[in-house]
Fold:
Amino acid sequence: MKPIAIIVSKYSGVLLIWLLLLWWALFFSPIDIPEFVPHTPIRIYGVLIFAFTLTILIFAQKEALREMPALNIGRLVLVGTAICFIKDVFFQFVLSFTENSDKVRHFIEGTISTTIFGTALSFFVAFQLKTKKTNLLVLIIVGFLITFKVLTMIFPGMVKAS
Structure:
C-alpha cells in the first residue's frame, strides 16, 4: 500500500512541471499562441490550467481510492488540496523571480486563490468518485456558480478584472 504522501508528491510534481512548461510556452517561447480563444473573452492559459488540473485531480484521487478505498470525500478533498497547494507554492516561488514589485503579496494572493480553486475542483471530483451521483453533482456545481455570481455582484471588488 502506497502512502498518500507519495501520491500527493507525485501528482504535485507532474502538475508543477506541466504548469511551468505551459507558462514558458505561452509567455516566453517563440511559439505564437493567441492569448484568447477566438471570438471569446476566454483566456487559453486559463482553459489549459483548468483542464490539466482537473485531469490530474481525477487521476490522483482515483489512485488514492485504489490504495485506500475507505477514504471519505473530505479526505479526498484534502488530497487534492494538498496537491494544488504544494504545486502553487513552488510555482509562485518561481514566478516571484519574474516580479519586480510586491513579491510577497503576489506570492500569497496567487497561492491562496489557486489553492481555493483547486479545492473546489477537488471537491467536485471527490464527490463524483465516491457517490457516483452525477445529477446531484451538476446541481451542486450550478448552485456554486450562482453563489459565486451573486457574491461578485454584491462585492464587485472580489474578482479582479484583468
Notes: Residues 4-131 form one domain. Residues 140 and 146 are 10 Å apart (CA to CA). The mean pLDDT is 90. The radius of gyration is 17 Å.
